[in-house]
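User: For a reading group we're discussing how well predicted structures match intuition. Take LysE family translocator. Before you show the prediction, I'll give you the sequence so everyone sees exactly what went in.
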Amino acid sequence: MPVDPHLLALFTMTTLVAMLTPGPDMLFVLGCGIKGGPRAGLFATAGVAVSEAVHVALAAVGLAALFEAAPTAFTVVRVVGAAYLIYLGVQMIRHRGEQTPDVDASGGGMTARKAFLNGLFTNLINPKMVTFTIAFLPQFISPELGQVWLQFAILGAILIALEFVVDGTVGVLAGRIGGWLRRRRSAKRRIDVATGGIFIGLGVRLAVD
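Assistant: Thanks. Here is the predicted 3D structure of LysE family translocator, as structure tokens, for the group to look at:
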């Protein structure tokens, strides 16, 4: 198997928890679904997923070449990435619930094409997404197994599949989820704290590993 089974299971679990946390991508898809219906929500998800595929491809090409040319670079990237995950976890706990804006349910409509393009470009040019991809994915790569690019491809495919499942569901059920988020601020805060704790624990574990 080209990917370490233990790391693959850990990656899938961590990615799923991160996807379930209401963040910018989920709120964007939610807003598109409310304004344009389920079709717009699904196309918004597709736009976000395509941009993530680009991020993963760039990370795979660049980091795979770097790890092959300088094996010690893997340790550096992994430690820096683990530190960044800890930082993200601390930020989520400190600012829990503060960055979830109200979703406007009275928007003037959103076409599927516009939803897709907005999802594609807003995510594609977001420097935080590039940083997260470069910091996150190498934590689950095992250079000793070889074919680093293939490991990146497998992890990227899982990431995109979970994106479609989670955010696609949000887009389809946008009306109900939007109302729930507006009513349950305390639930959002608890989710942020739990996810922040997982990121911190994962960062510490992988830094020490």
